[in-house]
């Protein structure tokens, strides 16, 4: 997402680095659900011990809520910075959704068994489909999946007027109702994590992970025929499709890295992964700070990002390649910083 969120020119972006305009799915649309899926997997690993100690559940839930609220607060800070206009701040957001989903999915894992988790997951997917496809939208009429008149958009605009994504103003891609199926994405990760933790043959675990990955992907594509795959609405078909692909990816990584022992290529990903939230937060903060730093040029005053981009990138590359090169520069810039942190064992935990 650092690559996606930091182009040199928002009007010059290669198609795979864009979100789908509405229905459909691009490679960029896989990043967020993959992250929530692996959050679910990590919950199964991190809280397994706490799950076996019911007498400490209240303390564990307190830590879960504090961590989730910290993520929410970081997302809200990014939305406020640098103007801190509270009356118009966007309340939903990526970090905010991660925080909420983490709290709900972690508590469900802690307090329920696998069968109940499957029932909750199925109920959320089917219930969200029923709400979006069959419940009339108040003040509008029949149910629909249009950007501004669907049930999720109505709820966002009703409960958070003036505090939604500035590009739409009346609905939000990380809105209230669509957070429910986002929890389902994490719960699939929770189930996958519990499967991986089983004391079983590695080949058997990989095989079933792959089988269920194919099943979920196919079910998502079939459901897409009636309830289209849509990242902004986080439709039930999108949950199954992306979670299926995530399971296939996880199974492949498990086979290559843990079973076959091919680990040397993983270092750059590990460097980013151990400080994932930190780099996501800072990569959103630094461009805002650069926008505040002004540089005088013969053409007038511009912000420092525009000055650097137009001085070192646009004169030498085509518009699309210049925009991509700027984004890649950010990837390598953060890689250097994160590599130093990794070597010094500096891991900022949220």
UniProtKB/TrEMBL annotation:
This is N-acetylglucosamine transporter. The chain crosses the membrane at residues 30-52, 64-82, 94-111, 118-137, 175-196, 208-226, 238-257, 269-290, 323-342. Keywords: Membrane, Transmembrane, Transmembrane helix. It comes from Rufibacter tibetensis. The keyword Transmembrane helix applies. It comes from the Bacteria. The keyword Membrane applies.
């Amino acid at each position: 997402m650092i690559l996606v969120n930091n182009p040199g020119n928002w009007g010059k972006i290669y198609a795979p680095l864009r979100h789908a305009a509405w229905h459909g799915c691009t490679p960029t649309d896989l990043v967020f659900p993959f992250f929530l899926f692996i959050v679910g997997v990590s919950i199964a690993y991190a809280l397994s011990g706490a799950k076996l100690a019911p007498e400490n559940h209240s303390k564990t839930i307190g830590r879960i809520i504090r961590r989730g609220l910290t993520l929410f607060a970081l997302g809200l800070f990014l939305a406020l910075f640098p103007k801190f206009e509270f009356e118009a701040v966007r309340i939903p957001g990526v970090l905010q959704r991660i925080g909420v989903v983490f709290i709900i999915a972690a508590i469900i894992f802690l307090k329920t068994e696998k069968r109940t988790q499957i029932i909750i997951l199925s109920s959320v997917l089917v219930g969200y489909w029923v709400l979006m496809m069959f419940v009339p939208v108040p003040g509008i009429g029949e149910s629909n999946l249009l950007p501004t008149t669907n049930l999720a958009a109505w709820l966002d605009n009703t409960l958070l007027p003036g505090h939604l994504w500035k590009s739409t103003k009346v609905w939000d891609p990380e809105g209230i109702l669509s957070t429910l199926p986002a929890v389902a994405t994490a719960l699939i990760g929770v189930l996958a994590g519990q499967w991986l933790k089983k004391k079983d043959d590695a080949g058997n675990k990989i095989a079933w992970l792959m089988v269920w990955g194919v099943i979920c992907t196919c079910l998502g594509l079939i459901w897409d025929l009636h309830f289209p795959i849509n990242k902004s609405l986080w439709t039930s078909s999108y949950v199954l499709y992306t979670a299926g692909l995530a399971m296939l990816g996880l199974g492949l990584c498990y086979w290559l890295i843990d079973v076959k022992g091919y680990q040397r290529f993983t270092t750059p990903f590990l460097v980013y992964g151990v400080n994932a939230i930190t780099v996501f937060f800072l990569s959103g903060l630094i461009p805002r700070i650069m926008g505040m730093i002004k540089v005088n040029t013969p053409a007038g005053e511009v912000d420092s990002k525009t000055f650097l981009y137009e001085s070192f990138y646009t004169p030498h590359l085509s518009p699309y390649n210049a925009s991509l090169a700027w984004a890649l520069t950010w990837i390598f810039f953060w890689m250097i910083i994160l590599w130093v942190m990794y070597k010094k064992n500096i891991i900022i935990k949220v």
